[in-house]
């Protein structure tokens, strides 16, 4: 082992048995080893230098507020994460469960109402709906017929008070309406559930009642 | 001093990322003496060391949002610190950084007067200061500051093998410089 090999092994593994043999034969390496031990002894006990107290003021003074804010506000992944965390922190202060439950109930109510009015009707529902409309129209027909009967009697009693030509025009209109009403009734005998015909019939009754009302007002 | 013995204050770093000035001071207080000691040993005087420490922490706080936690925050700060010191050394000497063993050529070697009554510590510190840049940096980080070769390789962006060989060369140089004073120093010790 030569001196170079001794120091190479010494740096990696310290003094090996072969290294001890080399030291016995090499006064130069023995002296250098003494220097090594002195060096390590002193170096490992060197005191740590203390940074001057004034140094922080220098550093702080060299960090303008604006610059720090700009760095902080620069959009980056960390700032986004921080922002999201901040949002969650804010939400923690909200009574989250009751608010959430109220929102869900409101949303379900809106959806249910919308569905009820726009839902496709089943055949049974459709028949029920038609019967409902037919019943309502029939009730209106009965009301108009009652009003027509009452007004017809009143007008008939005082028809001499109306201008004869005007009376004839009114009679002609009522005759046309009666004819129309008869046609509608014939159609309904063919199909009682035809709500369209029933609607036209109700409108014809309404028109006849209003015409008789006009005649009655002329008399009075 | 064993670097790995220091725990990583991730909470302080997180607060620093949010721009908390008090946390800046906390982080500074945690590593100011070590950064300053390293700087003073690498640069050789207090004024340059203070400038380097100031520059280091300004850079640290401006770039704290870029610290991802891949390494210890101390390793990250010392990497910045050592690189700033190396830049200062280059400016002073106006020579590039070498990591080869041949960078001892041309460096001035100050030989102390063996007749003067000097202490052992001052001799060593003077000799360290006179080491070539590459040797000095690895020697200070490993032997004095307690960094491992893996950490030094990370800080200086060199291989572990280069770190080891530079340390061996630095110690060899220091031993050689110490030999004339060995008797005096041993008497002091």
Q: What is the strand and helix layout of this fold?
A:
The complex is a heterodimer of chains A (220) and B (189).
Chain A: H1 3-13, H2 17-25, H3 27-43, H4 55-61, H5 65-73, H6 77-92, H7 96-118, H8 123-157, H9 164-190, H10 195-219
Chain B: H1 10-17, H2 21-43, H3 46-62, H4 73-93, H5 120-129, H6 133-144, H7 149-156, H8 160-178, H9 182-188
Helix pairs in contact in B: 1-2, 2-3, 2-4, 3-4, 4-7, 6-8, 7-8
Could you describe the 3D structure shown?
The complex is a heterodimer of chains A (220) and B (189). Chain A folds into three domains: 3-43, no CATH class; 65-117, no CATH class; 123-219. Helix content of chain A is 81%, strand content 0%. Chain A has ten helices and no strands. The longest helix of chain A is centred in the middle third of the chain and has 35 residues, at 123-157. Chain A is rod-shaped, with a radius of gyration of 54 Å. Helix content of chain B is 66%, strand content 0%. Chain B has helices spanning 10-17, 21-43, 46-62, 73-93, 120-129, 133-144, 149-156, 160-178, 182-188.
Using DSSP, what is the number of strands of chain A? 0
Order of helices and strands of chain B: HHHHHHHHH
Describe the largest sheet of chain B: none
- Kindly give the count of domains of chain B: 2
**Main interface: chain pair and counts:** A-B, 38 and 47 residues
* Cα shape of chain A: rod-shaped
CATH C-level category of the largest domain in chain B: Mainly Alpha
Please give the oligomerization state of what you see. heterodimer
CATH architecture of the largest domain in chain B: Orthogonal Bundle
Q: What is the structural class of chain A? A: mainly alpha
Q: Uncertain segments of chain A of ≥5 residues (pLDDT<50)?
A: 66-71
Average pLDDT of chain B: 78
| Number of H- or I-type helical stretches of chain A | 10
Count of alpha and pi helical runs of chain B: 9
Q: What is the CATH T-level topology of the largest domain in chain B?
A: Rna Polymerase Sigma Factor, Chain: A
- At the fourth level of CATH, the homologous superfamily of the largest domain in chain B is RNA polymerase sigma factor, region 2, helix turn helix motif
């Amino acid at each position: 082992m030569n001196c170079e090999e001794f120091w190479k092994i010494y740096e990696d593994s310290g003094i090996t048995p072969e290294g001890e043999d080399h030291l016995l034969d090499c006064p130069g390496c023995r002296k250098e080893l003494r220097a090594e031990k002195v060096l390590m002894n002193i170096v490992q006990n060197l005191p740590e230098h203390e940074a001057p107290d004034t140094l922080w003021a220098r550093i702080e003074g060299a960090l303008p507020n604006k610059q720090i804010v700009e760095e902080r506000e620069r959009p980056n992944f960390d700032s986004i994460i921080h922002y999201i965390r901040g949002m969650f922190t804010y939400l923690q202060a909200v009574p989250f469960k009751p608010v959430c439950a109220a929102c869900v109930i409101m949303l379900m109510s809106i959806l249910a109402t919308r569905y009820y009015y726009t839902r496709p009707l089943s055949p049974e529902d459709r028949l029920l709906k038609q019967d409902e409309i037919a019943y309502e129209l029939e009730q209106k027909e009965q009301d108009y017929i009652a009003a027509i009967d009452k007004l017809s009697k009143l007008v008939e009693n005082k028809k001499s008070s109306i201008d004869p030509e005007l009376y004839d025009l009114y009679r002609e209109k009522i005759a046309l309406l009666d004819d129309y009403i008869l046609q509608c009734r014939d159609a309904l005998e063919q199909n009682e559930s035809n709500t369209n015909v029933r609607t036209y019939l109700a409108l014809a009754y309404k028109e006849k009642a209003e015409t008789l009302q006009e005649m009655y007002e002329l008399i009075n | 001093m064993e670097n790995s013995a220091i725990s990583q204050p991730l909470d302080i770093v997180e607060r620093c990322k949010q721009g908390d000035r008090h946390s800046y001071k906390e982080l500074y207080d945690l590593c100011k003496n070590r950064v300053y000691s390293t700087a003073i040993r690498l640069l050789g005087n207090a004024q340059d060391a203070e400038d380097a420490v100031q520059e280091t922490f300004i850079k640290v706080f401006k770039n704290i949002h870029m610290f991802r936690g891949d390494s210890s925050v101390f390793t990250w700060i010392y990497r910045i610190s050592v690189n700033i010191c190396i830049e200062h050394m280059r400016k002073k000497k106006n020579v590039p950084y070498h990591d080869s063993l041949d960078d001892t050529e041309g460096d001035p070697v100050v030989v102390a007067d063996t007749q003067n009554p000097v202490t052992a510590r001052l001799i060593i510190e003077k000799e360290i200061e006179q080491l070539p840049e590459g040797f000095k940096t690895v020697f200070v980080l490993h032997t004095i500051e307690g960094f491992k070769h893996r950490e030094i390789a990370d800080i200086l962006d060199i291989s572990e093998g280069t770190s080891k060989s530079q340390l061996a060369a630095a110690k060899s140089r220091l031993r050689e410089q110490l030999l004339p004073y060995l008797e005096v120093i041993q008497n002091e010790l």
